[in-house]
Design a protein that fits this description.
Blueprint: E1 4-6, E2 11-15, H1 21-29, E3 35-38, H2 45-50, H3 55-66, E4 70-75, E5 86-90, E6 93-99, H4 100-109
């Protein structure tokens, strides 16, 4: 395992391939310590499929491929005019479960 400390943030950084889950659990998760894990997604197929797309193309592909998937979304501030199936409080912010297509629709409005 190789650690690279970022002096500007004081948070350990390391490549995902250099740390086992048991090391991560012991050194960070159980101690509630922040860390930055780099290169987590480098082997994911999704990188090959979507990485070269523009923002607009990426959004269209996500809605086409995953638009009906339910995702948790945190909102800063209140959007009481929206009617959604599930609203919870999470860390002081509203956490809502919605379809990914609905999230992108709201995101476009901002």
């Amino acid at each position: 395992m190789t650690f690279r400390n970022d002096p500007s943030e004081g948070i350990d950084r390391f490549d995902a391939d250099s740390l086992t889950y048991s090391e991560f659990k012991k050194n960070y998760l159980e101690r509630n310590m922040p860390c930055i894990i780099e290169e987590v997604t480098k082997h994911w197929v999704i990188n090959e499929k979507y990485a070269s797309l523009s923002v607009k193309e990426f959004e269209e592909a996500m809605v086409r491929d995953f638009g009906n998937a339910k995702v948790p979304v945190l909102f800063q501030g209140s959007r009481k005019e929206e009617t959604l199936e599930h609203v919870n409080e999470y860390g002081g912010e509203e956490c809502r479960s919605m379809k990914l297509a609905e999230f992108f629709s709201i995101w476009r409005e901002k």
